[in-house]
Amino acid sequence: MGYTISQIAEITGLTAHTLRYYDKQGLLPFVDRDKVGNRAFKESDLQWLAIITCLKKSGMPVKKIRQYMDWCMEGDVTLKERLEAFEAHKKFVTDKIAELEEYMHKIDYKIWYYKTAIDLGTESVISQTNCVWTFDKKDKT
């Protein structure tokens, strides 16, 4: 059974616009077309869309996803390249998680700060420097 782009959009949560964009960017080489040229998605295409979505939402640029899809279409001769791409992406995601955890610590501290100030009825007994967001030496932003 073939699925239309609107059916796939409903199933995946991706918009039809996003699916068309992915197709134009070369991320959907596996999608067949019907007699009149409309995209005809198969059940197995959902697995491809799931990995594309995972890579995109975890920060992989479209250009790199396209390279990965090209390697997949080439078959077994690109297994090593695909493994290396996933290892590199895992490092990127791991680093991003660590960065977000640092920000979460700062946010948690500010929540504690304001709750304490509210409980005390003032922030005057808490160091005023706590009101300012400062950068650690290792922060790049």
TrEMBL record:
> Out of the domains of life, which is the source?
Bacteria
Any one GO MF annotation of this record: DNA-binding transcription factor activity
| Keyword DNA-binding in record | yes
Keyword DNA-binding set for record: yes
Against InterPro entries, the record matches this protein to:
DNA-bd_dom_put_sf (IPR009061), MerR-type_HTH_dom (IPR000551), MerR_fam (IPR047057)
* Sorted UniProt keywords: DNA-binding
Q: Which SMART domains match?
A: HTH_MERR
Pfam families tied to this protein: MerR_1
What are the HTH merR-type domain coordinates in residue numbering?
A: 1-71
Please identify the protein, giving its name as recorded: MerR family transcriptional regulator
Q: Which organism does this record belong to?
A: Paenibacillus paeoniae
